[in-house]
Amino acid sequence: MNQPQDKAALLSSRRKVLKTGAAFVGAAALSPLYVFASQGPAHPQPAPRAIAPQVKIFDVLKYGAAGDGKTLDSAAFQRAIDEAAAYAGKAQVLVRGGHKYLVGTIELKGSIDFHLADDAELLISTQREDYRGGLPGSQNGDTMAAALGAVIMADHAQGLTISGTGNIQGRAKEFMTRYDDAGGIWMPGPFRPKMFVLTGCKDLQVRDITFAEAPNWGLHMLGCDGVLVDNVKVRNLLDVPNCDGIDPDHSRNVEIRNCNITAGDDGVVIKCSRQPIDFGECANIHVHDCVIETQDAGLKIGTETTSDIHDILFERCHIKTASRGLCIQLRDEGNIHDIIFRDIAFTSRFYGDPWWGRGEAISFTAIPRTATSKVGSLHDVIVQNVTGTAENSVRVCGSEQSRVHDVILDRVSVTLERTTQFKGGLFDNRPTLPANGIQPHDTPGFSIEHADNVTLRNCAVAWGANPPDAFSYAVEAKDTTGLKIEGLKGGPAHASLGKAVSIS
Predict the structure, then answer these.
(1) Is 136 exposed, middle or buried (0-12, 13-18, 19+ CB in 10 A)?
(2) Which helix (H) or strand (E) holds 339?
(3) Helix (H, G, I), strand (E, B) or coil at 350
(4) How far apart are CA 185 and CA 182, in angstroms?
């Protein structure tokens, strides 16, 4: 295992490749010189220097969109998109502000800028017949990643940009059946589309837009390569399930930056979902300078881990609230390695039983999904300069099937205190069938189990006022080898325990 600075240098080198690709995409951004599709050629412009290529505008209003929020405009949008994609030069599909456009499925194509100008709003239809089906090969009952269809779709589009300051309104509550007061959660109806399913796209940019009240996953990018997601705002409802913010799935060379995310489910989650087509691994992903509020995990890898996930860097993020601040859940046959979390602040707390997570500060687990599941390996993970307040432990936990190994926790400081009235003394292992989904467990500052070569370097544990009986040691290790504890600050939650570290 390299030292943190060596590993960071390796990822920095990989990011240079990614940023070169992003710069190439950015250089192709549309210039402000427009030619409208309904007009003749623009008059020649005298130019003392080279002028960027003109951009032809395909205005959805000129293709029959009503923009009244009542008339279904999907067909008009599709006509504009198809003609823009067929144009030989630079093309922008313009969705003008000052209008609400009712839409079902829209399929975007390559080499266009789909631009939500000013305050333009796409209002999604609540009628199932207005949507295309899910991913190729998916059927009713398939995994959440495959089924159910989406509002904005693209299939192997190259050079696609989605931009503008407009909004996509998902009308989440209209896809729900009732509110469960005990769980603090809306119960979904039989159909609820995703906001985006962008499949196999290359040189993709999503910039500046807002989407809100998603009834299902938000920005789902499956099998994409060369992606920039910049300054996207997500305003989902905190009590709607499965409304993830941003999901790179089997995707590579991805940069997600400057995003502000509110979502009931995971904020940014990297995964490799089970698909009828092999979309490959997740690799070379950089998530940075984001603000996240969620009732699930703030920054997460998993649970869908059917292919390898590696060379991932999360940094300079603020997780305002979550059920787990940082999370890796290995449940399938893929391997997860070469992961860095650094310069992150978080707050983690309990929510009702339907919400996964029991307020863990950090939770890295490798547990089989089913009794017959093959579980890959989770190793070479660095957490550096991370600080937070939580109701539950920093947790590194493997299993008999898969021991976690080579993890460095460097300058990780956590304050544990109860801030809600939910039952404590629990770890959340879901999803799993062989293990206890909700496991009774005391609450140490750092919990290390079924793990090898874990290092705690200059870490700190503090306890809030009146710690409950379940709060225990600063560090508790069970079935570990090669554990190193260097420069630990903090003692046990209760003086009666007599020591800061318990190893068994």
Answers:
(1) exposed
(2) strand 336-348
(3) coil
(4) 8
